[in-house]
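Subject: sequence -> structure tokens, single chain

Hey, anyone have a minute? Need the predicted structure for the following. Not urgent.
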Amino acid sequence: MGREAKIKRVFYVSAGGADIIQSHTFWRQGVHNPNEVSITFSGQIEDFVQEIGAEAYMVSARAEAQIVQDGAFTIEHRVRTHGKGLGYYLAELRYCLGLVRTARAFGADLALVDSGVVPFFMMTAFRIVGIPVVPILHNCLWPNGFRPKGKLQSIVQWLDRAFWRRVPKAIIAVSPEAERQVDEIAGAAHPPIWQVRAQFLPDYFAHIPSPDADAVPFRIMFIGRVVEHKGVLDIPDMARRVEATMPGQVRWTVCGRGAALEPLRDKIVALGLQDVVTARGWTSLEDLQQVYTESHASIVPTRSGFAEGLAMTAAEAILAGRPIVSNPIVPALELLEPAAMTARSNDADSHADAVAALAGDRTLYRKLQANCAPLRAQFYDRDQGLTAVLRRALAV
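Reply:
Had a minute. Here:
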């Protein structure tokens, strides 16, 4: 592949309300962001920009507006509005056009845009004004196995099909499932798709000892956003089912915060599971190491209301030497299957049965736990990280 024209100005838009100003501060200091287990994607993009000698304008949607200028980097937190129904798409279009205006005023010759920023077909606006665009798929296009079939979604997918076929300069995907879905919607006629893996620092996990495979009770943990579509409200139902057949043998810990935290705690009390399930709420990274130390396995029970791209908490569990219990909605399951128990999607009983099988068969548990080690390399391999993949994809 020949070298492309030099990239001088990169415009990047982050999804998920990330605090990219704080992340930039740590990046500038050359230290890992202590609020994150993984190496931030925004930091990897900054590494890319620095390596190719470019400038960057980076945007994230936040509740309060703020702009920081630091050498070659301009970092903006931008307030955005949302709507419902048709109003949703109008609000998304306004936000997209505002981003395009900023990118054009900046003189961007490349736009990197995370999935979830705006509907994919709207990213065509960057191409219309002459800015090549690279979508970064941190999410799948739909929950695995649950492709939307409604009339409005069919129209959106038709528009997206044209986008995927003609617009991107390259496509970055965090999982094979995300790549397959682009193939499914666009057919073979689309720009190259490049796989990337989330990256972590080994030091964090080096402080977590191997689990005691024979310890009783068997301890299983959940870490992540405590919201309904992550399956957390199913955990008390799972725990009740396991407790009925294996009393006192399994204990559950939920770490994280979110809109479902209080409903989760209420459900735990209503089912009389206060001694079985602990909902810790927010947990510091230091305390999380202790939770991992005390745990045997991790559960990732995402439901079909969310188009998971990978589920980095599944990768984190493997790096900590803990097998996972999950379902096919979680694309990480495909990559981590040798160290996983697979349950049926949207089925709390199936997840409970998988946990019970793992807790009740310590030989099986030891096998899955031993399988964690060879799966770790991909998440420590910087050649599979975003910085290196962008350089290959863009031939710079």
